[in-house]
Amino acid sequence: MKTLLSLLLVLHFTLLNEPKLLVKTETIQFTVKKGIKKKINVPIQNTGDAPLIIYAVEPTCGCTVSEFPKVPIKAGENGNIFLEFDSAKKPVGTGSVNIIIKSNTRYKYARIVLVASVI
User: Fold this and answer.
1) Where are the beta strands (DSSP E) in the chain?
2) What's this model's pTM, rounded to 2 decimal places?
3) Which of 39, 51, 68, 116 has the lowest tally of Cβ within 10 angstroms?
């Protein structure tokens, strides 16, 4: 019985230690002239109590490239995701691009939406 209780306590506290990704701005709206590349900084924070690992940051179209932290973000610390939107690859008008963040959090995925007005 003591072994079972000890095992349950260890399992409980192990499950509590997890990273949590806070994306400070989930929707980013901007206007850009056709042919211009717009650089965007997206602050993120690990609000959990274990290291946060970003595996990938994947835009849903070829008009945006990403750069993200390659080392774990410690609990309570901040990081940045850098995006570059190339308006030359989009038609004039308003459109959106989803950015999928893959990480080691419980939910595995987070999303940022870029809403760009190309003029």
Assistant:
1) 21-23, 27-32, 37-46, 54-59, 64-67, 78-86, 93-103, 109-118
2) 0.83
3) 39
Mind listing the pLDDT tens digit for each residue in 44-78?
999 999 999 999 999 999 999 999 999 999 999 99
Virtual CA dihedral for 11, 13, 15, 18, nearest 10 degrees?
A: -150
Tokens 């965007």 — which residue?
A: 40
Please state, in angstroms and rounded to a whole number, the distance separating the CA atoms of residues 49 and 58. 25
- The residue among 24 and 39 whose pLDDT is bigger is 39
